[in-house]
TrEMBL record:
SUPFAM superfamilies associated with the record: Protein kinase-like (PK-like)
One of the record's GO molecular function terms: ATP binding
Protein keywords: ATP-binding, Coiled coil, Kinase, Nucleotide-binding, Transferase
One GO CC term on file: cytoplasm
Gene3D superfamilies per UniProt: Phosphorylase Kinase, domain 1, Transferase(Phosphotransferase) domain 1
Protein name (database record): Protein kinase domain-containing protein
Source species: Pristionchus entomophagus
Amino acid sequence: FSLSRFSLLSEHCVQAIRSTALVQMSHNASRNLDEENNAMRATVARLTEANRQCEEENRKLRDQLASQANNAPGLSSLQLPSINNAQLADYTSKFAKEFTVTDIMGVGGGGCVFKAVNKHDEWEYAVKRIVVDPRDVRDGKLHKILREVRAMAKLDHQHIIRYNSTWIEEPPEGFQLYADDETLKRINSKKMQLKNYNPQSLFIHIQMQLCNYSLTDWLNDNKTPDTRKPIRMKMWFKQMVSGVEYIHDNKLIHRDLKPCNILFTTKDHLKICDLGIAVEQKVEKVGEVEVEVTMTRTGTSTEEYMSPEQSSLRMFNESRLTTASDVFTLGLILAELYVVMDDYAKKVKIFDNYRRGKPDNIFDEKQTTTAQFIEKLTKLNRKERLTCKTMHGEIFMS
């Protein structure tokens, strides 16, 4: 009996110990959970404070940059204006909505050219963006610029890059600077001159056919005489003349013909592009003679391929040019097609001598016809030069 009672008491003791242990374990687990929660709350608090400090540092940095921009001489036009959410919500950019920029093909004083994919048809296009300064809008020059763009948009020729569409965007002040900054970051580009414009500017967009290979590229890739096959070079030149003649027939002057503005759509098919500085012709009397001159506008053509009158008139900030200036440049390009000019200094000397009316003897005896033809295109007196129409009667063009 005593042994049974002892066994029963022992069993009760074991159960009591187990219960006590379970209670203790529960308390420990609860305490551990509380400690973990406290640690988590402390971590969140630290992260929140760190984020607040980071935002404060960013705010101070923005204020500092804005202050530097305001105080720096000549940088007032680069000050980043504020732009609020209401402005963002109210404005939609057609370009941003319909295109995805994949590259920046070129940036110049008058704007830039994007390589962009149309989100609707998924084709790649070149989109040229022309910056219109607020002063030009106030002075009424916007109407003239638009008239020129519309005139160029009407050009439809097999050897001229066709405009697909044209539109104007007038974003709220500062919108475009922020949008361009995001574009540069996304495509990892360092072309900061993309943002070199007045924040209040308007932007004309021109969507056109994309060509990734230019005559400049071809010249750089083919620097041996055996690559300059006369038959092929003449075929290319005839295409250029055809395109320029069409431009002239439509009362326009290109003014900036050069190899990088002559593009390949296929292996042997060329198209002229970058008509952004082309200008309308008009006729006025100089003495008793009627001559065609451009509408007054400062010259923006490339000096290397300028006609002598372009170089001369540029000194006086004038732009009284005729179609003969384009013809002179065609002569320089033809010379570069036939003769390898891999030394830049040599090329400049050759072109300068053409502008002086004293061409170098760069052609061999078999190319006498070519040399004589180029001399007719590059006459110092522009009235003596051939026109695109009269070129067709020359032996070289047969």
